[in-house]
Design a protein that fits this description.
The protein is α+β, with helices and mostly antiparallel strands and 159 residues long. It contains 4 helices and 6 strands, in the order ββααββααββ.
Length: 159
């Protein structure tokens, strides 16, 4: 499921509520590792150990996309955790650079292609994902987000 929203007030993507954690990283090659370790730590503390592997993979993909495809000086990571699920949002200040997954048919043609599979991976692991543009008519920020829920919890989230 892919969702696109636009809002003037930066709010965390669904789910609302729970505890919010934020991290701002310089846009460097090590940003993905730092974000991955940050998310791993939060999920461990909040007793979502079953989500750790999927979250590490997804946050790595999304942060790497921000690093490779934007020249934003800061990559902002926000994690919202409640007792049912976790949502990770990765924001950059390049709202006109939209994340688009590569079509599966295109991947069959180019099996040697090294990139372009990240958002398909996020789509397959997350119970929801999308991106939000902040700033209305003058967009200033884009956040790519995904929500993970433990087995048996995915059906409880209603966008």
């Amino acid at each position: 499921m892919t969702t696109v929203t636009a809002t003037a007030t930066p709010q965390p993507p669904p789910p609302q509520g729970g505890e919010n954690y934020r991290l701002a990283l310089p846009n460097t090659a090590s940003a993905a590792k730092v974000a991955r370790d940050f998310v791993t730590s939060l999920l461990g503390v909040n007793r979502h150990r079953a989500l750790v592997d999927d979250a590490r993979l997804c946050v790595t993909e999304v942060v790497t996309n921000a690093h490779r495809h934007t020249h934003t000086p800061l990559i902002r990571v926000q994690v919202t955790v409640d007792h049912q699920q976790a949502t990770v949002s990765v924001a950059d200040d390049r709202p006109w650079s939209f994340p688009l997954p590569t079509e599966p048919a295109a991947l069959c043609v180019e099996r040697t292609q090294e990139g372009g599979r990240g958002l398909m991976l996020v789509d397959s692991l997350a119970c929801a994902w999308g991106f939000t543009i902040y700033g209305g008519r003058s967009p200033r920020l884009k956040a790519v987000w995904f929500t993970l829920a433990e087995a048996g919890e995915a059906g409880r989230w209603n966008p």
